[in-house]
Design brief:
Blueprint (H helix, E strand, L loop, with lengths): L9 E4 L5 E4 H8 L13 E11 L10 E3 H13 L5 E11 L1 H12 L5 E9 L3 H5 L4 E4 L4 E4 L12 H20 L5 H8 L11 E4 L1 H5 L5 E2 L2 H22 L1
Parallel strand pairs: 3-4, 3-5, 5-6, 6-7, 7-10
Antiparallel strand pairs: 1-2, 8-9
Length: 245
């Protein structure tokens, strides 16, 4: 693995010459929990998505970011692991790169293992599709989710094709959220273009129960509920596998 993708485990030789894992360094480097080893009791992996989701453009150092090129190899490793039975996704993000966010959401959605998401603080913009891409989703009572149209930074060429392209990108997000939650496309689009709230002139801010009432998130809850639900889904998956065998 090249240095561009930091290893899931940092290793160093022990006094006897054998290689030891250093989970603390992994947490410090990536802000991620390391993959569980064979002798660990934990049967799931926790993936945190915080700050701004960084995609094809490197953001300034002052920005707190989650790099999608760090998450994608982890998701592949989780899918292939024999010891990891499920995935817990914790979000506190302002959004970010649309392509990167949708790529992460699609990978989580198609992960062949139980998945649960928990929105803490905020799950805004492209964080919304990621939050509802899991098998079951939770939102903290005080957490917020901002739904708004796609926004671009930099120069925009004012021709009809540009606006058609933006509409297609918007449609991708709308269809994904509607397909992976209980909200309809029309209602999601209505929330997206609502005026009257202070969300850069258009959009909607949903707080905790409101996100559940709209059907975007399944339930209001915290860490305890999310962990219990993930273990329940893992148990159901294992029992189903035993029946098939």
């Amino acid at each position: 693995m090249s240095s561009f993708f930091p290893p899931l485990f940092s290793q160093q030789p022990a006094p006897g010459g054998e290689v030891k894992d250093k989970p603390l360094e992994t947490i410090m480097q990536l802000g991620q929990m390391p993959m569980p080893a064979q002798d660990q009791d934990m049967n799931f992996h926790c993936m945190s998505i915080v700050g701004q989701i960084e995609g094809h453009i490197i953001l300034p150092p002052k920005n707190k970011t989650t790099k999608y090129e760090h998450l994608i190899p982890q998701l592949v490793a989780i899918a292939q692991s024999k010891t990891i039975k499920g995935l817990l996704v914790i979000l506190n993000t302002v959004g970010g790169d649309i392509e990167a966010g949708l790529a992460i959401a699609e990978m989580i959605k198609t992960l062949p293992k139980p998945t649960v998401s928990l929105v803490l603080g905020g799950g805004h913009s492209i964080g919304v599709p990621i939050a509802c891409s899991t098998d079951y989703s939770f939102v903290a009572e005080t957490a917020t989710m901002t739904i708004h149209p796609i926004r671009l930074t930099g120069m925009v060429i004012s021709v009809p094709q540009t606006y058609e392209y933006l509409e297609k990108m918007q449609e991708r997000i709308t269809k994904f959220v509607a397909a992976n939650s209980r909200i309809t496309e029309d209602r999601f689009r209505e929330l997206m273009f609502r005026t009257g709230e202070l969300v850069r002139d258009v959009g909607t801010v949903l707080i905790g129960k409101e996100a559940v009432a709209e059907g975007i998130i399944d339930e209001v809850g915290g860490m305890g509920q999310a962990l219990a639900k993930l273990q329940e889904l893992i148990r159901q998956r294992e029992e189903g596998s035993e029946v098939l065998q």
